[in-house]
Amino acid sequence: MRYQISGKHIDVGDALKTHVEQELQSVIEKYAERPTDAQIIFSKISSEFACEATVHLSTGLTAQAKAQAHEIYAAFDQCSEKMEKQLRRYKRRLKDHHRARSVPVELAGASSYILASEKEGEDSEPESLQPIIVAEMETKIPSLSVGEAVMQMELAGVPVLVFRNEGKNGLNVVYRRDDGNIGWIDP
Asked: Where does the Sigma 54 modulation/S30EA ribosomal protein C-terminal domain start and stop, copy by copy (predicted)?
């Protein structure tokens, strides 16, 4: 498994890197069979340290966790506990489905755009109807079942997930509704 441990505007020492690798390896070995890589980023937000961890599994699913604490080791330990909880839930759901994925999730390339938001308090008409593109990047669209897409959305902590439906081979969307339920768009 590959580890990428870095810091934003802070120096991450060898002792912390060793601690992160050992702790994360023990957590991942319990619940994930074939993790491919992990990315851990430390940063300082005012008087607290923040830790963001992302683990990519060979099934194509991604688990993410974030935590903040006054000490850098405590921030990682809290983040590690959240990651362990997510992976435990993921493994339990896989057992509940009585179906193991035999091949990795297929990913298709797509473009992702970030559009500029309208300025607050601006009631006038825009100069053009074309939105201003702030950023453009490559993204991957996974081929999943609906259940796996919902699980991936919850693991990643995102409100919306676009995926290629394995059953129908078309693009679908799952999203979290305002009432807390999950919506599924199947065009």
From this structure: 130-183
Tally the C-alpha atoms within 13 A of residue 103's C-alpha that lie toward its C-beta.
7
pLDDT digits (tens, 9 = 90+) for 53-71: 988 877 667 788 899 999 9
Q: What backbone phi and psi angles, to 5 degrees, belong to 138?
A: -85, 145
Domain range summary for the chain, segments of one domain joined by +: 2-97, 107-116+131-185
- Select the CATH number that applies to the domain covering 107-116+131-185 from these four: 3.30.505.50, 3.40.190.290, 1.10.600.10, 3.40.470.10: 3.30.505.50
Q: State the alpha helices, DSSP H only, in 41-130.
A: 72-97
Nearest to 16 by CA among 80, 92, 61: 80
Q: Strands 133-144, 160-165: parallel, antiparallel or unpaired by DSSP?
A: parallel
- Both tokens of residue 100? 């193991």
DSSP state of 47: T
Asked whether 154 and 62 are in contact (CB, 8 A), the reply is no
- pTM given for the model: 0.58
CATH 3.30.160.100 is right for the domain spanning 2-97: yes
Beginning with the edge strand found earlier in the chain, give each strand of the sheet holding 35-45 in spatial order: 2-8, 35-45, 48-57, 62-69
Radius of gyration over every alpha carbon of the chain, rounded to an integer in angstroms: 19
Q: Do 182 and 174 form a contact (C-beta atoms < 8 A)?
A: yes
